Amino acid sequence: SIGRSGGRVAILGATGSIGTATLDVIAALRRHDPERDWRAWSISGHSRIDSLGKLAAGSDPVPGTIVVSDPERETSARSTLKTHQLHASCRLDFGPEALVRAATDASVDTVVAAIVGRAGLESTLEAVRAGKRVGLANKETLVVAGPVVTQAALESGSVLLPIDSEHSAIYQCLAEARSLAKTTGDDNANSPCDRRFSQKYPGVRRLILTASGGPFRGWTVDQMRDATPAQALNHPTWDMGQKITIDSATMMNKALEIIEAKWLFDVPHDRIEVVVHPQSIIHSLVEFDDGSVIAQLSPPDMRLPIQYALTYPERLPCPAPPLDRGNFWEMTLSPADHERFPALTLGFEVAQMGGTAGVVVNGANEAAVPLFLAGKIRFTDIAELCRETLRSHHHESQPTLTRLLELDTWSREYAAKLAVKLVV
Ligand code: NAD
Ligand code: MG
Fold first, then answer.
1. Same domain for 141 and 183?
2. Is the pLDDT of residue 134 over 70?
3. In ligand 1, which atom is closest to the CA atom of 302?
4. CA within 20 to 30 Å of 272's CA: 204, 263, 326, 398, which one?
5. Residues that bind 1-deoxy-D-xylulose 5-phosphate, according to the entry (predicted)?
6. Which of 59, 28, 61, 65 shows the shortest CA–CA distance to 43?
7. Structure confidence at residue 1 (pLDDT)
8. Where among 163, 191, 216 does a domain terminate?
9. d(CA 47, CA 114)
């Protein structure tokens, strides 16, 4: 069980789409829930230092620490931040270690992990080790180091609350099942993981992730082969950072989410499903043993899952708009197409393999996305490079963190080398 959180929040990746939404949520909580004195205790940014200064100056109260995670920018950032006339008590800290200091600061109650990609790993892991409440937007951390992060959470008592909307939805739908957790698992379970799942979530049959399908939902493979970065960046329902927007177009985002669900809920891969739901109103569903399905609905706005991670188990008024029932709203569900979106199959395979599979596919994908954006590879090459890199690696089921980090580097280099051989 988990108690009420305090109101001091470290926002790692504050300049991003999730980071700025988090600041918005905190400003509203400060009004609705004055007792807890909600505030951004520290905020970080990597490159857009002017935005970082604006965010700090616009926060009430001004954060105690501003972290510039790119060490190369220390000198320029000092002079940029000076122009924002921040309060004298506002401390500046630099480099990746500063992210870890912010994440483990004894004054901080909750860490919002909103850095994109594997770069968020160390700070998120250290927040977990320090026993913080962690609002996890940075899904790549679980994909890369799921076994290490979940073990660390067990040891420290840290609670990982998903910010990813699908996982937040599932977390919300599982509330009752969680309260029914048993001391022993189902004897008929077909694997140790299956037995643990039946023990933690009695009566739950499947977790069903919804996918918007992205901008290429109706496209043929031939059309996708010629898709441009501008077309891929044009997401129909969500306004997000570049990397996750491309991941949504390839459906690699859903693959990462399948793997994220595996680690977050300790769920066997064959109890996860994906359905396409273009309106992004149903954020995910849970099916129970009696066939009943419970879903979580709200308009596509990340401020809701962010706030839920901050205030859980309580619910408070949120700046995200409620569903507008005065208009027609259509909701459709359809099966996901693994033929046109091979990343999906990859996601299930990686969830089944566990161990080193996640880091390798994530590394290849993180290498491939910028290559696509730079016009060096085709859209359809992204999933291809991930598949090929996974195939070429030697799988281990119980890797150490050091091994995972080595494979992170290896997979990026391997995918980049493969990419050179491709002719655009
Ligand atoms: P974004 O690109 O808008 O922001 C990324 C943040 O990370 C920025 O603050 C940037 O300064 C920081 N950053 C980038 N590189 C860094 C590095 N090397 N070291 C330290 N910091 C670095 O991304 P986003 O859309 O806000 O996504 C953030 C995370 O949340 C991702 O893992 C994404 O998958 C996840 N997520 C986002 C959404 C969404 O709606 N945007 C939804 C679900 C999950
Ligand atoms: Mg999501």
1. no
2. yes
3. 40
4. 398
5. 139, 165-166, 212, 235, 248, 253-254, 257
6. 65
7. 58
8. 163
9. 14
Give the per-residue pLDDT at 186: 85
Taking only the tens place, the pLDDT of each residue in 200-230 is 999 999 999 999 999 999 999 999 999 999 9
Q: Ligand 2 centroid vs 282 CA: distance in angstroms?
A: 12
Quick one: 15 and 38 in the same domain? yes
Residue 137: which of 20, 5, 282 has the closest Cα? 20
The predicted model scores a pTM of 0.97
Lowest mean per-residue pLDDT among 123-127, 232-236, 369-373: 232-236
Looking at the CA of 247, name the nearest ligand.
1
How far is it, in rounded angstroms, from Cα 353 to Cα 11? 32
> Please, what is the average pLDDT of the chain?
96
For residues 123 and 179, state if they share a domain: no
Report whether 140 belongs to an annotated binding site: yes
Q: Which of 163, 183, 201 is the last residue of a domain?
A: 163
Asked whether the predicted pLDDT for residue 423 surpasses 80, the reply is no
Mean pLDDT across the stretch 52-58? 96
Structure tokens belonging to residue 254: 């859903």
Here the ipTM equals 0.99
Which pair of tokens denotes residue 151? 């073990």
Task: Name the residue with tokens 């998120």.
Answer: 124
Query: If 0-12 CB within 10 Å is exposed, 13-18 middle and 19+ buried, where does residue 82 land?
Result: exposed
Residue ranges lining ligand 1, Cβ < 6 Å: 13-19, 45-47, 69, 114-116, 119, 137-140, 164, 238, 240-242, 244, 302
- Tokens 């950072």 correspond to 241
Nearest to 406 by CA among 118, 158, 93: 118
Respond yes or no on whether the N-terminal peptide bond of residue 215 is cis (omega within 30° of 0): no
Q: Are 237 and 338 in a shared domain? A: yes
Nearest CA to ligand 1 atom 7: 115
Q: What percent of the chain has pLDDT over 90?
A: 92
Domain ranges, residue 232: 172-300+333-354
Ligand nearest to the Cα of 254, by number = 2
Same domain, 110 and 38: yes
Atom 2, ligand 1: residue with shortest CA distance: 241
Tokens of 97: 């270690």
Is 200 known as a binding-site position? no
